[in-house]
């Protein structure tokens, strides 16, 4: 009896010590509750991002809870049933009830995780038939090109498809002095149509909590080359290529600039007009500068630095 009390006391002390260590570790990080629950993820800017963050958060919480139970089941026999003599303790082999438990519980865990994962995946991949803005995303070594296929509510020479004065699709392409910038409206359904000019790239915006590989035509293995989302706040968000694609892969950045809907409408209108100072169609930086709407209309990317798109600028390797 005394031995059992001693073992129980020791187990209680270990549990208190582990709890104290956990509290000290949490306090030492200096993180807020929201930051702790994100487990390192950036703040999302879309409903899809929030859904994925929720899946990640509660999956980690469930894993930690299961881990604590497993650790307790390991530590309890180690502490309470350590060897105290040559006499063997009571044996429990062929315990069918226990076998059902440790077989059934993992199956239930996997089924529940699968159900929540499938639900989140379906939500993230859902697409409406009539998005507000449809953009063409063309990746190439080592640059991005963004064009507007359709902008609902816009009225131009070709209906809702913005067309530049030269008759071409309104498009933004990066150059050695300017990061390619994809300008979008806030709280509107956006469809991204992805394709590559050469090798496989990957469209990745950390605040979207989402990335998708960009394949050259024709896509292989029924690769889905489109996705949709709705960005719920204005601002500038860095984008990157997340697939190793060659020499300047690390510098293949872009920026997503999200404007209020009325400002975005003015931006698109300007992109379909001729700049009287240059006698050419307004570029993205020129249109943003003319809008003069503060930090949101900064004419140059604010989250990345320019890169060199000249493939011949690199030194030969041998």
From TrEMBL:
Biological processes per GO annotation: ATP synthesis coupled electron transport
A GO term from the CC aspect: membrane
Recorded topology in the membrane: Multi-pass membrane protein
Enzyme class: translocase
Main location: membrane
Listed Pfam families: COX2
Membrane-spanning ranges: 57-79, 100-120
InterPro entries linked: CcO_II (IPR045187), CcO_II-like_C (IPR002429), Copper_CuA (IPR001505), Cupredoxin (IPR008972), Cyt_c_oxidase_su2_TM_sf (IPR036257)
GO molecular function: copper ion binding; cytochrome-c oxidase activity
Protein name: cytochrome-c oxidase
């Amino acid at each position: 009896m005394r031995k059992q009390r001693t073992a129980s006391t020791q187990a209680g002390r270990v549990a208190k010590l582990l709890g104290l260590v956990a509290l000290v570790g949490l306090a030492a990080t200096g993180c807020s509750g929201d930051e702790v629950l994100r487990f390192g993820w950036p703040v999302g800017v879309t409903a899809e991002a929030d859904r994925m963050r929720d899946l990640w958060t509660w999956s980690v919480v469930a894993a930690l809870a299961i881990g604590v139970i497993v650790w307790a089941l390991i530590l309890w026999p180690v502490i309470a049933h350590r060897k105290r003599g040559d006499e063997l303790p009571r044996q429990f082999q062929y315990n069918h009830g226990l076998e059902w438990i440790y077989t059934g519980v993992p199956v239930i865990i996997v089924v529940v995780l699968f159900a929540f994962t499938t639900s989140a995946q379906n939500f993230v991949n859902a697409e409406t038939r009539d998005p507000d803005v449809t953009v063409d995303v063309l990746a190439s070594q080592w640059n991005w090109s963004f064009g507007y296929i359709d902008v609902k509510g816009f009225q131009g020479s070709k209906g809702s498809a913005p067309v530049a004065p030269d008759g071409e699709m309104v498009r933004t392409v990066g150059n050695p002095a300017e990061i390619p910038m994809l300008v979008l409206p806030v709280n509107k359904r956006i469809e991204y149509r992805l394709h590559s000019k050469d090798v496989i790239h990957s469209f990745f915006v950390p605040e979207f909590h989402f990335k998708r590989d960009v394949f050259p035509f024709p896509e292989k293995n029924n690769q889905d080359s489109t996705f949709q989302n709705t960005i719920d706040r204005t601002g500038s968000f860095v984008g990157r290529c997340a697939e190793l694609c060659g020499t300047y892969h690390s510098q293949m950045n872009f920026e997503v600039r999200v404007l209020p809907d009325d400002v975005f409408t003015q931006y698109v209108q300007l992109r379909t007009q001729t700049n009287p100072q240059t006698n050419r169609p307004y570029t993205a930086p020129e249109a943003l500068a003319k809008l003069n709407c503060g930090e949101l209309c900064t004419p140059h990317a604010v989250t990345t630095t320019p890169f060199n798109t000249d493939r011949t600028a690199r030194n030969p390797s041998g």
